[in-house]
Amino acid sequence: xxxxxxxxxxxxxxxxxxxxxxxxxxxxxxxxxxxxxxxxxxxxxxxxxxxxxxxxxxxxxxxxxxxxxxxxxxxxxxxxxxxxxxxxxxxxxxxxxxxxxxxxxxxxxxxxxxxxxxxxxxxxxxxxxxxxxxxxxxxxxxxxxxxxxxxxxxxxxxxxxxxxxxxxxxxxxxxxxxxxxxxxxxxxxxxxxxxxxxxxxxxxxxxxxxxxxxxxxxxxxxxxxxxxxxxxxxxxxxxxxxxxxxxxxxxxxxxxxxxxxxxxxxxxxxxxxxxxxxxxxxxxxxxxxxxxxxxxxxxxxxxxxxxxxxxxxxxxxxxxxxxxxxxxxxxxxxxxxxxxxxxxxxxxxx
Length: 350
Ligand SMILES: Cc1ncc(COP(=O)(O)O)c(C=O)c1O
Known about the structure:
Layout: H1 13-22, H2 34-47, E1 52-56, H3 59-70, E2 75-80, H4 84-87, H5 92-97, E3 100-104, H6 113-121, E4 132-139, H7 150-162, E5 166-171, H8 174-181, E6 196-200, E7 210-214, H9 223-229, H10 238-248, H11 252-273, E8 278-279, E9 287-293, H12 294-302, E10 308-309, E11 324-330, H13 337-349
Parallel strand pairs: 2-3, 2-4, 4-5, 5-6
Antiparallel strand pairs: 1-7, 6-7, 8-9, 9-11, 10-11
Helix pairs in contact: 1-10, 2-10, 8-11, 11-13
Bound molecules: pyridoxal-5'-phosphate.
Keywords: Lyase, Pyridoxal phosphate
Catalytic activity: L-allo-threonine = acetaldehyde + glycine; L-threonine = acetaldehyde + glycine
Cofactor: pyridoxal 5'-phosphate
């Protein structure tokens, strides 16, 4: 019953096998091998446009360096107040990009368009003391398990465009959002005005595979230097390519995300039907937020369930009582129906 994070899951066997296979023999280093080149071409096929792809080790590195590529001196970036770049990356995006992260409010982890406009207005281009608006970063799927629909993405990127700002998407759970929407990778990104994407593979079955994807390769000119200076240029880059080869083959990445989302659906249905627990809010990806009595949370933990108690967002604070916990349950490609059903049974027993 591992619901703490999709990072707790291992690697999918097909990905591990491919990594082992590529571990034999020799190939040129630093992203120049045949395998590296072929995976870069695969990304262009998947996104239906010529893209430039740069591997990094972690999602934090992907976000930080993607934002660094959009940055200008004195720039500020706008992100949802609960965004990973603000809450969970220890200032790495600020450090690498040299920009301040400015919070934008909005319910359920999504930036509200009016709040974004109001925040942008606070940072005009001549604001030498406060900083000038530079870019917007949105998380898809969001940290609260919700997913921006295509028109919501378009609305935010249009505001960015009207103000001359670049747009970054944190896609640590890109595949989960994509299958939730039933959209194509192109529709959810550059066709809706996204300039650069952090494409996450690690949470969805890879061992360690994160890529920064530029939809206009001309905008990636500085990236080789930004990445090397940040010590993120892999010499044995082909091992990341090997993982992504298996990940992208036969749409494995989409199948794994569909499975994870399906397990979350099962949890959501069970929680909605439960008389001891309830959903804190509706989510569309592989994260589920539930409100359960503290005693039940303790019982579930004692019986081996792993999950995190979650900080209560302001917009739902009034709905949660003192003797209740808000918990986050994350499913992954490795979650089983037995795990979900056992967890739901424990809640019922309580
Ligand atoms: C929304 C989001 N972005 C990025 C990351 C990447 O984090 P890490 O640097 O731990 O790979 C995570 C991981 O938890 C995440 O949830």
